[in-house]
């Protein structure tokens, strides 16, 4: 099997919906990391102290054939069409280990949808 890593930086208001939608689209799990980001726009300040935008980074290891479907689900659930709600992208994973507990679900999904 070939895998991709989907990384999504998501507005806190939509995190649960994004995770649920990604799982419905075929993701078998997610790793959630705390992150801080800086974009093209300046941060707001409060009494001269910079207020950083805290966000969660969601990381999904998914089967390659399913990655675009999952990315589309993340886009919709995260309302990414609206400014400031997040970004998501995928990267090719050269090798993945420790996926034994998820292999049956991934193989079943592949057989039902692509073979």
CATH T-level fold name: Alpha-Beta Plaits
Please give the largest β-sheet. 4 strands, antiparallel
Shape summary: elongated
Beta content:
25-35%
**What CATH first level would be assigned?**
Alpha Beta
Q: Between the first and last Cα atoms, what is the distance in angstroms?
A: 14 Å
Oligomer: single chain
Helical/strand content category? alpha+beta
Describe this structure in words.
The chain has 115 residues and is an alpha+beta fold. The chain is 31% helix and 33% strand. A hairpin with a 2-residue loop joins strand 3 and strand 4. The protein is elongated.
Keywords:
115 residues, alpha+beta, Alpha-Beta Plaits, two-stranded antiparallel sheet, 3 helices, elongated
Short description:
This protein is an alpha+beta fold.
Question: Strands, helices and their partners?
Answer:
Layout (H helix, E strand, L loop, with lengths): L2 E8 L4 H10 L6 E7 L7 E2 L2 E2 L2 E11 L3 H11 L8 E8 L6 H15 L1
Antiparallel strand pairs: 1-5, 1-6, 2-5, 3-4
Helix pairs in contact: 1-2
């Amino acid at each position: 099997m070939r895998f991709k890593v989907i990384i999504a930086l998501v507005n806190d208001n939509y995190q649960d919906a994004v995770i649920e939608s990604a799982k419905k689209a075929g993701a078998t799990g997610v790793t959630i990391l705390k992150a801080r980001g800086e974009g093209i726009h300046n941060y707001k300040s409060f009494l001269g102290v910079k207020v950083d935008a805290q966000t969660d980074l969601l990381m999904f290891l998914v089967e390659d054939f399913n990655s675009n479907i999952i990315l589309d689900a993340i886009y919709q659930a995260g309302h990414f069409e609206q400014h400031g709600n997040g970004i998501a992208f995928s990267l090719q994973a050269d090798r993945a280990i420790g996926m034994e507990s998820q292999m049956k679900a991934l193989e079943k999904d592949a057989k039902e949808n692509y073979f």
